[in-house]
Specification:
EC 3.4.21.89, Peptidase_S26, eight-stranded antiparallel sheet, 1 helix, Umud Fragment, subunit A, LexA/Signal_pep-like_sf
Length: about 260
């Protein structure tokens, strides 16, 4: 027969194990990697709805947003900071609504950025782009929000092929990445934006389907993002689910396991 003391000791050991596990998980999430699931198509075709990844939090150092629920309020600015590079895919905290966004870093402090007829200009120079075929996907609801893709060949019926023009864009530092074009939209021609000191300018790779720094915060955009709002760099997709949930393993995309993010 198990004594009361043994039951008490067993219960205490279980409690300690749970507490230690939570502490380790908290430290891991705060200092090393934060899980992130792609909820929208703003970064296609670099990132797809349903991609699951870990954000490298020590890439840029730490700020109050490095802790879960932004609890690191004791951090002023950034600790152990490292400057991000143009072309990095970055998770950051929206300056106004507090949600986490993932976009590509396009503009550094002091840069002048403009879109003209869908072409990106940095500091007055046209950024090189080369045609790279098309990005094709099935017209069907995607992810838990059941979002339907936008198409250059629309309207497209359910089950049809949704097509977007695809280009390779090469930034001045030599970083090349894929961008998509649906058609001329309101963000394809913009004024010249000058990035303030201590801020960054972000854009989605799916240029005509992205809420980003081309729209200011008052207009429900992103605007310029302060350096302390950076959470970390996205380096690699761990796995990807094409269905409504990550747990629907039968919808996992076999070709995206540990896919490098470029």
């Amino acid at each position: 027969m198990t004594s009361k003391a043994e039951v008490k000791d067993g219960l205490w050991e279980t409690v300690k194990t749970v507490v230690y596990a939570l502490l380790i998980a908290g430290v891991f999430r705060t200092l090393l990697f934060q899980p992130f699931w792609i909820p929208s198509g703003s970064m296609k075709d670099t990132l797809l709805i349903g991609d699951f990844l870990f954000v490298n939090k020590f890439a840029y150092g730490y700020s109050q947003y490095s802790c879960p629920f932004s609890l690191c309020t004791f951090i002023d600015g950034r600790w152990v900071s490292s400057e991000p590079e143009r072309g990095d895919v970055v998770v950051f905290r929206h300056p106004v609504n507090g949600t986490d966004f993932i976009k590509r870093l396009i503009g550094l402090p002091g840069d002048r950025i403009q879109m003209r007829d869908g072409i990106l200009y940095l500091n007055g120079e046209e950024v090189q782009t080369e045609p790279d075929g098309t990005f094709d996907e099935v017209m069907a609801p995607q992810g838990p929000q059941r979002l339907t893709p936008r198409c250059a060949n629309g309207p497209v019926g359910q089950g049809g092929t949704c097509i977007k023009e695809k280009f390779t864009e090469t930034l001045p530092n030599g970083v090349s990445h894929s961008i998509l074009n649906i058609g001329m939209g309101p963000n394809d021609n913009t004024p010249v934006y000058t990035v303030p000191e201590g801020h960054y300018f972000f854009m989605g790779d799916n240029r005509d389907n992205s809420t980003d720094s081309r729209v200011d915060q008052l207009a429900r955009g992103v605007g310029m993002v302060p350096a302390e709002n950076l959470i970390g760099r996205a380096d690699r997709v761990i796995f990807s689910a094409a269905g409504r949930s990550l747990f629907f393993f039968w919808t996992w995309r076999a070709d995206r396991f540990f896919e490098e993010i470029v």
